[in-house]
Amino acid sequence: MKILIVGAGQVGTDIASSLGENHEITVVDEDAERVEEVTYNIDALAVEGDGTSMEVLREAGVDEADIVIGTTDSDETNLAVCGSAKTAGDPFTVGRVKKRKFLETWEPSPGAFGVDLMVASNVLTAEKIARLVVTPAAHDVDVFSEGTVQMAEFEVGDDSPVAGETVAEADRFDSLTFAAVLRNGDVVIPSGSTRIETGDRVVVIGSPESVHSFAVDVAPSGTPDKDADIVVFGGGEIGEVVASLLQDRGFKPRLVESEGGRARELAEELPETVVMESDATDRDFLERERIGDADIAVSALDSDEKNLLSALIAGRMGVERSIVVTENTEYTELFETVGVDVAVNPRQEVAEEITRLTQKNRTVGLALVGSEQAEVVEVEIDGESVFAGRTIHEADGDLPGGVVVGAVSRGVEFVPPRGGTTIHEGDHVVLFVEAEVHDEVLEKV
Amino acid sequence: MAKLDWRSSVSLVGTVVKYLAVPVLFPLAIGLYYGEDAWVFAVTAGIALVTGFLLERLDTEPSLHGREAFLMVAVSWLAVSVFGAFPYVLADAGAVAHPVNALFESMSGFTTTGATVMEDISFETHSRAVMMWRQMTQWLGGMGIIVLGVAILSRLSVGGAQLMETETPGQGIEKLAPSIVQTARILWGLYFVATAVLVGLLYGLHIADIADGMTLYNAVAHALTTMPTGGFSPEARSIEAFSPAVQWTLAAFMLVAGTSFALIWTVVEERDPLALVRNGEFRLYVGIVGAASALGAVLLFLGAGTDAAVGGVEASVRESVFQFVSTVTTTGYASADFNLWGASTQLLLFASMFVGGMVGSTGGGVKVLRWKVVSKVLRRELYTVSHPDAVVPLRLSGRVLDEDAVRSALAFLVIYFLVFLLGAVVIMEDSLRAGLSLSNFEALSASAALVGNIGPAFGVVGPMGGYGDFTNTTKMVMFVMMWMGRLEILPVLVVFTRPFWRE
What we know:
- The complex is a heterodimer of chains A (445) and B (503).
- Chain A is of the alpha/beta class.
- Chain A has 4 domains: 2-115, Rossmann fold, CATH 3.40.50; 125-222, Regulator of K+ conductance, C-terminal domain (Alpha-Beta Plaits, 2-Layer Sandwich); 230-344, Rossmann fold (3-Layer(aba) Sandwich); 349-444, Alpha-Beta Plaits (2-Layer Sandwich), CATH 3.30.70.
- Helix content of chain A is 34%, strand content 26%.
- Chain A has helices at 10-19, 32-41, 54-59, 75-88, 100-106, 121-134, 167-170, 208-218, 237-248, 260-269, 283-288, 304-317, 331-337, 346-358, 392-397, 438-444; strands at 2-6, 24-29, 45-48, 67-70, 92-97, 117-120, 138-144, 149-155, 176-183, 186-188, 201-206, 230-233, 254-257, 274-277, 296-299, 321-325, 342-344, 363-369, 374-380, 403-410, 413-415, 428-434.
- Chain A has a 6-stranded parallel β-sheet with strand order 3-2-1-4-5-6, sandwiched between helices.
- In chain A, strand 15, helix 12 (304-317) and strand 16 form a beta-alpha-beta unit.
- In chain A, helix 1 packs parallel to helix 14, helix 6 crosses helix 9 and helix 6 crosses helix 14 (346-358).
- Chain B is mainly α.
- Chain B has a domain at 253-352.
- Chain B contains 23 helices and 3 strands.
- Chain B has helices at 6-19, 21-34, 38-56, 66-91, 99-110, 128-143, 145-152, 154-157, 160-167, 180-207, 216-226, 244-257, 261-269, 274-278, 280-304, 313-328, 343-352, 368-386, 403-433, 440-451, 472-486, 490-495, 498-501; strands at 390-391, 395-396, 399-400.
- A two-stranded antiparallel ribbon of chain B has the order 2-3.
- The radius of gyration of chain B is 22 Å and the shape is globular.
- The termini of chain B are close together.
- The chains are: A alpha/beta (445), B mainly alpha (503).
- Chain A binds chain B through residues 256-257, 260, 263-264, 266-268, 271, 274-278, 285, 288-289, and chain B through 387-393, 395, 398, 400.
């Protein structure tokens, strides 16, 4: 396929590199340096210029593009790119936006602004945070098959009852599959006798209920109930959506915002949230409000430094779990090594979402695991797949190692994947795939 | 900012005065029917017509802006009270013929206060025409003369929204229809229909032989002062003169009159009686009336009531419900002489003078919605003591309240109580100067009854007494207090400030 990407920032580059091997990619950016970088690092054609100009788009081959992705830092530009592309040809357009208001316009009438698919980074990020909040000890939670299947990555702490158990002992749930154990940077595909050790990260795939039950097993004390004390630092859009999602799930979160007018606005919007006007790093305030007693602190302030600081202070005061938003992709891992429990990066969320949706002919879902050593993909089975009409056990023989069938969904129904389970055409299969066998597997599936 | 364009305001006051001649035709007709005092109303109508016509000519193209609207509304109420006083003076019967008394009685009428200076309330002293005019003034004032003007006079419709906002107490007009004229018509339409229904019911009771003395004349007279929560009655013993059936009927209609007409319209138009239950202000209003009545009934039953009530279940409940509904809605009817009540029940009734009806009703006083706002403010204050950084918007049935509205409710409450206190002091001291013996409680309750547009209070100004004994100075102060109370104080006060008149 011919894919045209406008905007060579972190998201654009990420998408270009993950789609580059199988597709013809053209990248457009105004910044000469970035264009140069793309040309060197990725197997893609790069065009320098304003992506909202028809002339530039033509030069980049908009007329023949199958997919056009607007992913610059400006929402309005991205929408204009999609709109312009629609007048030039008939590509599938993807627009990335930060602001929720565009999504609210687009959702009830898809196609608005000439956008076929809108990806709102703030909303995606907030949704991910909300999932993390309700899943204790999780580092990552992604949903597949419209919510029928969940993938979660857990860190096993030394006080976790699961530590020291074998996979066979820990696997007490019918519809849960242990896809992988990440140990010292390596991916281990576990067998029943693999022993789970302290410090491991366990990747499981299953129904949302079973994933949640396993989460309770991993961290029995960390499961938030309705009275859980959740503090959100920063009343930007991410903070607001997080609070609103938590509110919808019956929690009564506290939201800290330093700007008075915005705090008032939030308080009006969020009747079930306690909004406080203060600096998130003001020690007097934090002590006065006993922030240390909170179960979970979410930092969604306007800079990575403030987020890190607020999370560290909160952790020092006694908050059990910290979830932090990082603008800069490179900080994600760093933050987690210095004491932040989970770092969530909006750009990565967007890149995942866009990549997943542009592969949508076959692959409808995707999540990266660890530092991209593996990914979880959701594939719709067609007649030519190795799975079509065969049992998982039969198909497994034709696939390389490093692949685990995590779940099967048929319509809205969850089917536990066992060796003898027969897979039909039209089923969705969620697979855990190691990076090195990725291409080979997707080929066969 | 330009200077105040007072000509515009006064010219529009002229329009109101001119059209005052129309309702005067009703007592005129009664005068003709009974053959008494008809000329009084013919002359009054003539004076109103001519004066109004002359005033109108001050400005042929009046245009209203914020300040002009305030001036127009404040002066209109003053003007109609002055012209409403003419019949009392011209008829020259009894104490009310004195100009100061006539002004008091007229203002008490239009503001739906119901405080009287008449010494002998009977048809021996006063003609039926004059007595009907007294009832009529309350009916005109109840839903508001300006609202009526906006509804039917095109000259007032342009700045109508602003005018109605100034006149109709509360937090702004709830538009019931796309145009303000339509809204005004709906309000007056509802008001008219409710009054007509009450006339029918009262007279029906009379025909059914369970309402002795409720002649057609009395039915009309009492309907005209029930719906505006007025309280005047051509009977010297007020509602005590009538049967329990009449008392229950009137209590029910007073309760309706104290309900927001916008809410009543919702119930009628959408056939949705549950809208009442969903409305928080209505729940509180009924809750307060219910609780006070229940407590009152127990006290009266146990021996703190009049002879008729003590020991009688129905009688004590009825006496209590009637008085508390009458007082909370600021009507001021009495079905018993509550001067004979025990001190505990009297104090309870005094306290209920400060409740008021709902916003958007014909009732006066502080109003239930403000109390609701104030109670929320207090709760927030207490909360922010322990959580000083919390940002807590106030909500009324889910909708966020503007902080300006919150502030104005608080300011109103403060000013209201200041006026009440100052009024009581002036009444007390001026009476002392004139050698009148007056108790503190009498002075306090009189002040509360006047600024709250209730009417009767305790002691000498009790339900079977009157305001006739006060000095002329005191009566003029009371005149102003009633005027202020009806327009919710600020529109009147603002006219007396310097910046209002300057650039």
